[in-house]
Specification:
Structural class: alpha/beta
Radius of gyration: 16 Å
Strand content: 15-25%
Number of helices: 5
Order of helices and strands: EHEEHEHEEEHEEEH
Length: 203
């Protein structure tokens, strides 16, 4: 089970979280987000993949951020097309396409994206494109039939330890957990001790 910590902010906090050796660190490039990243990413272990999070951004904007920050993955949180996903895959980065869930979900909408992405990411549909702090009903995922592995997101926090253990044991192709708002002391500031405790509890 891979771990992604998203919505990073200051260099000091990035280094604190990087010391826990997550597989991915997420940086949000969306001006309307309280976690919009405009700073400097300090040097972290090469085993940690720097991930840029975008919402309906142009190919040019995403490409510029990939080069500027040496991103190894991109997470698309808007209404991005299959064609854009294919363009980004040609840049030799991992591509995550996000779909937000509230209530039932029609998984057939994923079919066209399957050849164009590395992973899907399922988040909770809320007021904002991400970081809403609410967990959707994971029972919906029983209807998932795609072979494409997915990342589980949406308000996952310390209270979800048992539920995380159960879904890991299921037959669902869960690739990673995406952790964000439930581990914050303020937007873009993660509580490294709380993260460490959670990671120890789910192992």
């Amino acid at each position: 089970m891979k771990i992604k910590v998203c919505g990073m902010g200051t260099p000091e906090n990035i280094l604190e979280v990087a010391a826990l050796e997550p597989d991915y660190l997420g940086f949000i490039f969306f001006e309307k987000s309280a976690r919009n990243f405009t700073g400097v990413i300090p040097s972290v272990s090469e085993s940690i993949k720097k991930t840029g999070v975008f919402v309906n951004a142009s190919f040019e904007f995403i490409h510029d951020k990939i080069i500027q920050y040496k991103l190894q993955a991109v997470q698309l949180h808007g209404e991005e097309t299959v064609a854009l996903c294919e363009q980004l895959k040609d840049l030799d980065v991992e591509v995550f396409k996000v779909f937000s869930i509230k209530g039932d979900f029609d998984f057939s909408v994923l079919t066209g994206y399957e050849p164009a992405v590395d992973y899907f990411l399922f988040d909770t549909k809320g007021e904002h494109p991400g970081g809403n702090g609410f967990v959707f009903d994971w029972n919906v995922l029983k209807g998932y039939t795609s072979k494409t592995p997915f990342i589980l997101s949406g308000g996952i926090g310390p209270d979800e330890v048992q539920a995380v253990k159960e879904i890991i044991k299921s037959d669902l192709p869960v690739y990673a957990l995406d952790l964000n708002s439930k581990f914050e002391t303020a937007p873009a500031c993660k509580d490294a001790d709380l993260l460490k405790e959670f990671l120890n509890n789910i192992k």
